[in-house]
Every structure is written in structure tokens, then in C-alpha cells.
Amino acid sequence: MPAIRIYTVDEAKQTILKRRRWDEWPIPDRVREGIRQVFGEELTPEEAVRRIVQDVRERGDAALREWTERADRVTPAYLEVSLEEIEAAYDQVSPDVVSALEFAAGRIERFHRKQPITSWLDWQTEGGMGQMVRPLQRAGLYVPGGTAPLPSTVLMTAIPAKVAGVDEVIVCTPPRRSDGRVAPVTLVAADIAGVDRIFAVGGAQAIAAMAYGTETIPAVDKIVGPGNLFVTLAKKHVFGDVGIEGLLGPTETVIIADETANPAWVAADLLAQAEHDVLATAILLTPNRTFAGFVQKEVEKQLDRLERADIIREALAHQGGIVITRDLAEAVELANDFAPEHLCLSMVDPWDLVGAIRNAGGVFVGEFSFEVLGDYVAGPSHSMPTGGSARFASPVNVLDFVKITSVVALNEGGMESIAEAAEILAQAEGLTAHAHAARIRRKGDLSFSLK
């Protein structure tokens, strides 16, 4: 059986293009067994997260250490990484990697500095009206890293925060099981990105620590960053006490291509996406069946050479596929309905379709703008909305790290020109005290007293 299946549109709508809520994904047996081992009883992931978050909220650092040992099966060498260890990390990372991180950081910073975030105040005859844009005081970034370090995620979340002017940016990332320390390459990335403090803690306990604070980890105003099921559930649990940028699920890419695209390149892009996770989505939409067959064969040819072939095969078997559409217009319609994290346009005139794209975390225009570049060095953050949330959400950007305060500065004439309407609307809502507050100013009764 081919590693990637070819579907009709109707078949795809009932399978790979049918959206599930992020919390409706099947819970793997290994996760259920892990919960049993940690808690000694059957719990849902939501119940497990609730217990961890509450314990960290009540017991602070002691709970952090205990849950890291119990849930992550690692004894952290420290909670906070020292400046000495960050400096020493440079000696443990290849100079080529350091240079690549610095190169990527420069592009990410330049991209985000172009984003307008200015305050404004419009002085009119009635006075002033406007908005003050202020950075958050403290942002908490979650960076996955239990099985492999993800320095790119440090850059993609920390640099927009620093550009926004956040006073303090902290990072929580899981320590390695081998030595209980944070991977040197993650420390180097954090240093390059200007992160202020780094903590060796992951999972739901890290989210709880950033939300409520412990003796060591300060409470933040907003938590940003991807993570596994338990991290996502924890972000959902603490939302309201702290801000979050969204609930990020498994990663996904949709490619729209015609027969002029290079099938080997398209296959490589599908394989790269499926490599992330067994729950990753990699879908090709094309109106050309012959081209679809070429891509299917290229996937088979390239797959056997890849180290994570088992993960890729499982992802393609469940969430991957090639869909034969009527034309490119139908492909765009399907993509807009699916609202993917990444949408790649590989055809002779990709700009002809850009104007029709409504829902995507990022649009990659043309075969030279392949999605892997977006993962690392293109410039925009690779932390993008998933699960169809691109219908209403955006990639992590500078605006995630600022807040807007409205400014109302009316003079007497401005007040008088609008107070009557306010009084009328207040009366219509039955809020007589509101109406009274407008009336005594509008009629100039400044001597009114409640005595």
C-alpha cells in the first residue's frame, strides 16, 4: 500500500479534511499508561493536568521538582539556569550552528520591527481620542525540548517579545533526561534572542509556574509557545488568570500545486511536515491526477532514506493524503475551509491565487518559498494557529506582547456634544445612575450633592 493515499474531494471531506477539535484527538495508549503510572489510577488528561496545576499553585518549587521527577522522569540539576552555564554553552555548540542562529535571529528581528505598533492620539475640536500601546511587563515562553531541543522556537517567540519592548522575557523548557540540564543549543538561542531568565522545567507544571509564580519562577502576564497535550490543556486551564496566544495542536501543511510544480520538491515538503509528529497533517491539493501519481511515487522513493520514516508513515496514513480537485479554484476553496497552519502555493503563477486566500497561518508563495524556510530563517514566527484556528487567529507576532489602552480626553464642548446621546441610551437600558451622571454634567449642575 502506498505511503500516501490519493483521495477524491468527497472522500477527503469525510477523512483528512474533516476537522476535529484539538481535544478530540485520540489519546494514545502510552499516554493513558503514563498517567496510570504517575497517578496510580485512571485519570483523563484534563484531570491529571488539573491536579498538577493546583499542586504547583499551592506548593511552588517543591511541587515543580516533584512533578518533573514523577511525570517527566528526570531530576533537574537546577530550576534556574545560571549565567555561567549560559556562557559555557557556547563552547558546546558548533560555531556553524551559532552562526545560523545569529543569522536567523537577525532576519526574525528585522521582519518583526516592520510591524506597526504605534500609539495614536487624535486631537479634534472636542478634545483628544486615541490609544496607548504598551508592552507587557513579563512574558513567559514555553519551549518544548524533552526529546530534542528546539532552539528555533526560542527565537520565534522571544524575538517578537523583545521587539515589542516586554520588560522581562522568561523561558521554561524541559531538562534533558541524560543530565537534568537544558540543552546548550537552547541556551545559546535564548542568549542570542535576549531572553532574561531560563528555567529547567517543562510540562503542565511549567505552565502553572508561569501562571501563578513560585519561589523561583515569577508569574507572567502572558504565556506563549507550543507544547504537547498536557501543556495545551494546562494553558487552557490557566487562561483568564494569565493570557495565552492560543491552543496549538498538531502541526499541519496544505500544498496547492499544478502540473508545473516539481513533484520531487512537493514530496519532500510533505515528508518534512509529516516528520514532526505522528499527528502531523500533510496534504496536497491538485487538479492533475498524473501529477498526483508522480508525487505519490516520489514520496515512496524519498521516504526510505529518512531517519524518522516510521513517524512519517504513521502521520501520512492517518492525516496525510493527495486530493484530486476539479481545478485550482476548488483547491483554494477547500484550503480556506480547512484553514491550515501552513499553505504552500506551487504553480506557474502562484500570485494569481494569493488574493483568494482567506484562512491560513502563513502563505508560502512559489516553490522557492518552501515551508521549511519558514520554520527556521524566513522571518515570520513559525508559531502559527493550528486546528482551523487560522480562521480567527494569527501567528505569534509583536501584537501578542502588547496591550492597547483606550484614551478619552474630551473637553467641555466635546462632552456636551455627546452626553445627551449617552443619557438617552442609559435610560433605554434602565441604568438611571448612568443617565444621571451624564445629565448633571450636560446641564451644568456641578453643585449636585448626594448629602
Can you describe this structure?
Helix 3 runs antiparallel to helix 4 (61-71), helix 3 (45-59) crosses helix 9 and helix 11 (263-274) crosses helix 12. The protein starts with 5 loop residues before the first strand and ends in a 9-residue tail after the last helix. The strands form three sheets. Strands 1-11-10-9-12-13 form a six-stranded parallel sheet, with helices on both faces. It has a five-stranded parallel sheet with strand order 6-5-4-7-8, with helices on both faces. Strands 2-3-14 form a three-stranded antiparallel sheet. The protein has three domains: 6-22 and 250-379, Nitrogenase molybdenum iron protein domain (Rossmann fold, 3-Layer(aba) Sandwich); 83-248, 3-Layer(aba) Sandwich (Rossmann fold), CATH 3.40.50.1980; 411-451, no CATH class. With 451 residues, the chain is of the alpha/beta class. The radius of gyration is 26 Å and the shape is globular. It has 18 helices and 14 strands. The model has no long low-confidence stretch (mean pLDDT 94).
Topology:
Layout: E1 6-8, H1 9-14, H2 29-39, H3 45-59, H4 61-71, H5 83-89, H6 95-113, E2 120-124, E3 127-135, E4 138-142, H7 151-164, E5 168-173, H8 184-193, E6 197-200, H9 203-212, E7 222-224, H10 229-238, E8 243-244, E9 252-257, H11 263-274, E10 281-286, H12 289-303, H13 309-319, E11 321-324, H14 328-338, E12 342-346, H15 351-354, E13 362-365, H16 371-376, E14 402-410, H17 412-428, H18 432-442
Parallel strand pairs: 1-11, 4-5, 4-7, 5-6, 7-8, 9-10, 9-12, 10-11, 12-13
Antiparallel strand pairs: 2-3, 3-14
Helix pairs in contact: 3-4, 3-9, 3-10, 4-9, 5-8, 6-7, 6-8, 7-8, 9-10, 11-12, 11-13, 17-18
